[in-house]
From TrEMBL, chain A:
Gene Ontology cellular-component terms listed: endoplasmic reticulum; Golgi apparatus; perinuclear region of cytoplasm; TRAPP complex
Natural source organism: Petrolisthes manimaculis
Residues in the signal sequence: none
Subcellular location: Cytoplasm, Perinuclear region; Endoplasmic reticulum; Golgi apparatus, cis-Golgi network; Golgi apparatus
PANTHER family recorded: TRAFFICKING PROTEIN PARTICLE COMPLEX SUBUNIT 2
Broad class of the protein's primary localization: cytoplasm
Subunit structure: Part of the multisubunit transport protein particle (TRAPP) complex.
InterPro entries documented for this protein: Longin-like_dom_sf, Sedlin, TRAPPC, TRAPPC2L
Pfam families, per the entry: Sedlin_N
Family statement: Belongs to the TRAPP small subunits family. Sedlin subfamily.
SUPFAM superfamilies per record: SNARE-like
Protein's UniProt name: Trafficking protein particle complex subunit
Automatic annotation (TrEMBL), chain B:
Record's GO cellular component terms: endoplasmic reticulum; Golgi apparatus; TRAPP complex
Gene source species: Petrolisthes manimaculis
Tagged with keyword Kinase: no
SUBUNIT field: Homodimer.
Protein name: Trafficking protein particle complex subunit
CDD domains: TRAPPC3_bet3
Record keywords: Endoplasmic reticulum, ER-Golgi transport, Golgi apparatus, Transport
GO BP annotations listed: Golgi vesicle transport; macroautophagy
Main subcellular location of this protein, as a coarse class: endoplasmic reticulum
InterPro entries noted in UniProt: Bet3, NO_sig/Golgi_transp_ligand-bd, TRAPP_component
Length: 138, 179
C-alpha cells in the first residue's frame, strides 16, 4: 500500500505530492526529496554507457526502517516517487511497475489538458481521483 | 496517450489526438489574448460560423443528402454530419411541442478529451465552435437557426447537449455578412 506518491518536475520542483491520511507529511516529503539524489545518480551513471536503452523504472531507490522508496523517471526528466511501508512485503516488483505505468499515463492525461502549464503544480481533479484509485486498488 | 488507432492509410487523415490538442491550444491562446470569457465564447462561435459556411459544401458533396422537407430531416442531416466529421453518434431529442427546437446530445465530446476547466473560466463554453458550425452550415442552405449549449460534460453534466432552434427560412440567397 503506497504511503506517499509524488511527481517531481524537471528542475526538481515538486509538482504534486499526495500523502496517505494519518502519516507524517514532513518526513515523507523529506524522504521523497532525498530520493531525488539517488535518481540523479542512477540517471548519470547509466547514460555513460552509450547504446544502452535506459529503463524508465529505477526500482528501489533506498529503504529505511519504516519505508521503502521507489523511483521512476520519464524521458522528459519528470520523476515519480512512490513510498511504501517497509513492513509491506506483499507488494511485488511487478505491482510497483504497474503503479508507475498507471501514474505515467495519468500524468500524460494531465499534460494534454490545454489549461495545464507544464512545470506548474498539478491541481487536476481527474489526477486526484486517479491517484486515489491507484493507491486504493493495490 | 498510447491508443491503438485504426488509421486508414489516407494521407489526408489526421490523428484525433492532434486535433484535440490543436483545438485545446487554440482555446487556451484565445483566453490569454482576450482574457474575457464572454469574448472568447463569441470568437469561438464566430470561428465556428465561418467553418460551418464552408463545411456545408463538403458535406453536401460527400454525403449527398436529399432535400430537407422539415426540421426533423434537418436534424437527421446534422446527426449525419457529426458522425462524418467528428466520429461521434449523437442522439436527437427533446423536441419542443411546436417542433421548432431540438437537442443534439453527445455522450462523448472528442474535442474536449483530457480537458479540465480551471476555476477562473467556468463560464467558458469550450466547444462553442460547434454551435457556430451548426449556425453557419444552416445559414448556407437558407435556414436561420440559433444553436447554443445547454449542458456540458466539462461543467459536470452527464452529457454534452446543444440546443438548436429554428428561427426562419431565409428568402434572400445571400447570407448576411459578418460585421
Amino acid at each position: 500500500m503506497a504511503v506517499c506518491v509524488s511527481v517531481i518536475g524537471k528542475e526538481n520542483s515538486p509538482l504534486y505530492v499526495w500523502v496517505g491520511s494519518g502519516r507524517e507529511e514532513l518526513h515523507l516529503h523529506y524522504l521523497a526529496h532525498t530520493g531525488l539524489d539517488v535518481i540523479q545518480e542512477k540517471i548519470t551513471s547509466v547514460t555513460k554507457t552509450p547504446g544502452d536503452t535506459r529503463d524508465l523504472y529505477l526500482g528501489l531507490l533506498y529503504a529505511t526502517e519504516e519505508y521503502k522508496v521507489f523511483g521512476y523517471t520519464t524521458n522528459t526528466r519528470i520523476k515519480f516517487v512512490i513510498i511504501t511501508d517497509a513492513a509491506n512485503t506483499t507488494l511485488r516488483d511487478n505491482e510497483i511497475r504497474m503503479m508507475f505505468r498507471r501514474l505515467h499515463s495519468l500524468y500524460t492525461n494531465v499534460v494534454c489538458n490545454p489549461f495545464y502549464i507544464p512545470g506548474h503544480q498539478i491541481s487536476s481533479r481527474e489526477f486526484d481521483k486517479g491517484v486515489a484509485a491507484l493507491v486504493a486498488g493495490n | 496517450m498510447s491508443r491503438q488507432s485504426m488509421r486508414a492509410n489516407d494521407p489526408k487523415k489526421v490523428s484525433g489526438e492532434l486535433f484535440t490538442l490543436t483545438y485545446g491550444s487554440l482555446v487556451a491562446q484565445l483566453l490569454k489574448d482576450y482574457e474575457n470569457v464572454d469574448d472568447v465564447n463569441r470568437q469561438l462561435e464566430r470561428m465556428g460560423y465561418n467553418i460551418g459556411m464552408r463545411l456545408i459544401e463538403d458535406f453536401l458533396a460527400r454525403a449527398n443528402p436529399g432535400r430537407c422537407y422539415d426540421l426533423r430531416d434537418t436534424a437527421d442531416k446534422i446527426q449525419q454530419a457529426f458522425k462524418l466529421y467528428l466520429g461521434v453518434s449523437p442522439s436527437i431529442g427533446s423536441w419542443s411541442p411546436g417542433g421548432d427546437e431540438f437537442s443534439v446530445v453527445m455522450e462523448t465530446n472528442p474535442m474536449a478529451e483530457f480537458v479540465e476547466l480551471p476555476e477562473h473560466c467556468l463560464g467558458l463554453r469550450y466547444s462553442n465552435i460547434l454551435s457556430g458550425v451548426i449556425r453557419g452550415a444552416c445559414e448556407m442552405v437558407q435556414l436561420e437557426v440559433m444553436a447554443w449549449f445547454i449542458a456540458d460534460q466539462l461543467k459536470g453534466d452527464n452529457m454534452t447537449e446543444i440546443r438548436v432552434k429554428f428561427v426562419k427560412r431565409l428568402e434572400d440567397a445571400i447570407p448576411a455578412g459578418e460585421d
